[in-house]
Amino acid sequence: MTHELQPVESAALPALDAAIVAYVEASKASNTRKAYASDWTHFEQWCKARGEPFLPAFPQTVAAYITALADTHKPATLQRRLASISVAHQAAGYPSPAGAPLVRATMQGIRRTHGVAQRQAAPLLVEQVRQAVCISGDTARDVRDKAIILLGLAGAFRRSELVALDVSDLQFREQGVVVTLRRSKTNQEGQDESKDIGYGAHEHTCPVRALRRWLEVAGIESGPVFRPFTPDGRAVAAQRLSDRAVSRAVKAAAKRIGLSADLFSGHSLRAGFVTQGYRAGIPEADIMRQSGHKSRAVLGKYRREGERFLTNFSAKVGL
Hints:
Blueprint: H1 18-26, H2 30-49, H3 59-69, H4 75-91, H5 101-114, H6 126-134, H7 140-154, H8 159-163, E1 170-173, E2 176-180, E3 194-198, H9 207-218, H10 243-256, H11 267-279, H12 284-291, H13 300-306, H14 313-316
Antiparallel strand pairs: 1-2, 2-3
Helix pairs in contact: 2-4, 3-5, 7-9, 7-11, 11-12, 11-13
């Protein structure tokens, strides 16, 4: 194959004013920027290893790239790789090869061959949480993880939202606690967004009491709400807890009551609230107000799960 275009090294990219660069970077969430950078580095290295130009890249090169990864990567991951390639080209002033007919056709073929269904984390439901909480220990770590699970479920929080909370984001009131989110997946511009967490009907599963107890046990009066422990495990560290620790807490709770930890993740708390909400007959608008979902279509999978077995069709037809 004869190439007329020559590869352009990263150092040769058009120079932008530092302020412009800062604002462009701020237009994307931190995790998104990290994903784009990682994806682009992988594509660049893949091209260099084959002597192919990567900026600008030919559609044939991009099609070959996603084809090479099709057996080991999910279609959703490949779609994100294409988005990263597109962003890099647009930032450098080049048309994106990811939108070329050849690339789109290749991606469509990959989807049809490998399917696009993604494994969703199982929802952690209220009855499961009750069981897990009742048999949990009483160490400071247990108190912290209990607060994470109960608050996360009651507020349909994402794990990133939980670990981003500061004490200044909490307003304890007679009816419960108002939690202010400074940033969320659907609120990247810092608009005022809050969630009302009321007192639970049962003291041992009350998210407000669990949160208060964690703050008291840990002696936290300001700064991050959820924190790791020092290496010796004797004291609470000053830094913010990693969002991976939320997943570990959920998995540990599931394992404690005999469930497969592999089925659960940090997202199980958010999924659990929405699923439980449908089962409890909470109006969809109220579910969305608490969860922060903007689209009813996104809630479809939770609605289906929440409404399973509400009607016993076997019995209804006389079996």
